[in-house]
Amino acid sequence: MLNPISRCYACSQCMKILLAAFALACWCHPSWAQTFEANYDEAKVPAYQLPPLIDEKADIADNFSAAWSLRRAELLQLFSEQVYGTMPTAPYELKFELLEQGESCGGKALRQQWTVTVSTASGRLPIDLLIYTPTNAAKAVPCFLGLNFGGNHTVTMDSEVAVTKSWVRENDANGTDKHAATEAGRGTAIGRWPIEAIVSSGLGVATAYYGDIDPDIDDGFQNGIHALFPEYRASAEHPQRWGSIASWSFGLSRLLDCIEQKVPQVDPQKVGVIGHSRLGKTALWAGATDTRFAAVISNDSGCGGAALSRRAFGETVGRINSSFPHWFCPNFQQYNRNEAKLPVDQHQLLALMAPRLLYVASATEDKWADPHGEFLSFCTAIEVYERLPDAADPSTVSQRVGYHLRQGKHDINSWDWAHYIRFLSQL
After folding, report:
1. How far apart are CA 369 and CA 303, in angstroms?
2. Is 268 exposed, middle or buried (0-12, 13-18, 19+ CB in 10 A)?
3. 204-209 and 141-148: which strand pairing?
4. How do 357-363 and 401-406 pair as beta strands?
5. CA 249/CA 263 separation, integer angstroms
6. DSSP SS3 for 132
7. What b/e readout covers 4-13, taking b as 16+ CB neighbours within 10 angstroms?
């Protein structure tokens, strides 16, 4: 049985152990299109060459930190233009309203429910933010911030937490009814959000429903945050138009605004953004675009997240664009079955987090998300951590980056969270 590994980086022993894990049986993802046959054979991974992480100027610069800053800006622009889309620059206003607060988790936690409203000349969008912090904390605490899939009421049995009124995907497990959430969904995602364990460790946790920000449906960008920026909504075919992942990331930054300005129980300089699956992709893009996040945690984020696109293993660029055309910008479509032409790859995205804390996690049976590709991407990105002044000491690098490969399928569970809690606690 494979021993899980965490907080390791680019060491030969770890590589040997992890490579052995990838020989396990393949997992057939239930959402395969009949015309798409995913490759799960390492022997069939195409030969590829990764675009350079560090350009020649930065490589030979006397001041790597200053040179990397320029390289980072270049990479961020490329990812914006070719993958996730450029965010709107039109002005907006924010309003923060505390709706309710009280004790929770048997008195261990303070619960707060906020509404964060984003407004432009074209309308307003309320986002419900749920925050739990330890009641016995002597000072402001580090805090996880992430989006959830079914509504804030699904992450807890706490009856005070309101059921979301936003559009939801039909999911019997979450108690939905004609795209509406119901009381039957309360607590159905507790396994993915161990709130009591988090606050008992001395940390906070904040979450919002991703559908509050933008509905996860190809609706022509007529709803959610896109509706507030009509110049982007109207130009639906604009090659750099921001997709839903970028909009969810934008929403995470607005939630951080609320925490910074209105929640004294949380240390705003110690907030870690976290996400699983498509929301893992979102957490990575949020961490890349908003350096206020002190830590970035990606759980099973796969294609368009931590996994290398050029491997075309499991879910590919073409497959993800055909299934979820609203997630990325139209420019990303030109790399369907053409990953070698991408000017960027995901090791460069991971490097954009440096020198802040970065954690990437994979699962042995989650072949769709290419765990080996996630690990290789992570290992390659670490070069930047090793060369930045904050990471000059190798022991410091090992503290600032983390990776684990968990036994099991595509999910985020208490085992994953135990590692994330230890990782964020160092802030």
Report:
1. 6
2. middle
3. parallel
4. parallel
5. 20
6. strand
7. bbbebbbeee
The predicted model scores a pTM of: 0.92
Q: Which of 26-30, 106-110, 221-225 has the highest mean pLDDT?
A: 106-110
Residue count of the chain, please give it: 427
Q: How far apart are CA 317 and CA 301, in angstroms?
A: 13
Q: Which 8-state DSSP code applies to residue 327?
A: S
Task: Write out pLDDT tens, residues 367-390.
Answer: 999 999 999 999 999 999 999 976
Q: Are 372 and 330 in contact (CB under 8 A)?
A: no
How many C-beta neighbours within 10 Å does residue 26 have? 14
**Do residues 214 and 251 lie in contact, with contact meaning Cβ atoms separated by under 8 Å?**
yes
The span from the first CA to the last CA of the chain, in angstroms, equals 33
CA–CA separation, 165 and 169 (whole Å):
12
Catalytic residues: 277, 410
State how far the Cα of 162 lies from the Cα of 32, in Å rounded to an integer. 35
The torsion angle over the Cα atoms of residues 230, 235, 241 and 244, rounded to 10 degrees, is: 60
What tokens were used for 115? 């509404």
Phi and psi torsions of 116, nearest 5° = -105, 115
